[in-house]
Amino acid sequence: MTQFIGKLRLGVNIDHVATVRNARGGAYPCPIRAAKLAEDAGADGITAHLREDRRHITDPDIDGLMEALTIPLNFEMAATDEMQAIALRHKPHAVCIVPEKREERTTEGGLEVAREENKLAHFIAPLRDAGCRVSIFIAADQNQIEAANRIGAQVIELHTGAYCDFHAEGKFAERDAELARLRDMCAFAHSLGLEVHAGHGLTYDTVQPVAAFPEVMELNIGHFLIGESIFRGLTPAMDEMRSLMDQARL
Asked: Any idea where the domains of the chain sit in the sequence?
């Protein structure tokens, strides 16, 4: 008999609505409108990454999201003094600390926590004191998970990009090895008392094996859903992703 292991939350990243807007420099399409549409379609949260170079989400977008949303905002940010000040001003439900390089197209890997443990511990302490849930975006690596736990993070988000890339490239042995690593590290993080999230690069083709991990409480998906919404609309695109996630939990 199959057993339902709990509903998996879907966080929708609306960064790339802003990417399209910024390509023309106007006001449309509006990421806040996309976030409200996602909320109406059943998203459990909205993710937005305010980058140092403001290549997609901007400061007024964060202002608008904080004002408009009734579901949690997951504020992705680099570990800089500027971003810490913005997060402390807004006090979003969650902040997710991510690595950031100006030359990258998108976040290329997990944060190096073990090497910067003392610095990050001091960085996240004021955010926790302000009532934000602190998440650390990391690779499926035991040393990084242990370090995230030691510095006081409440949540880790495991980077699924390598798994998705191997799948897209037809490297199925490497894909399966990375999936096994993700599975093991989800269980390990859970054993430490960390809440486990996952995301990056997930599509209809890759979401179910990750969604099936019982320790994963939330998936954050953006680029694929925004791209699919061009052809289908955001609500139908989300509905299919939600259906696949729910099926995987059986």
From this structure: 9-248
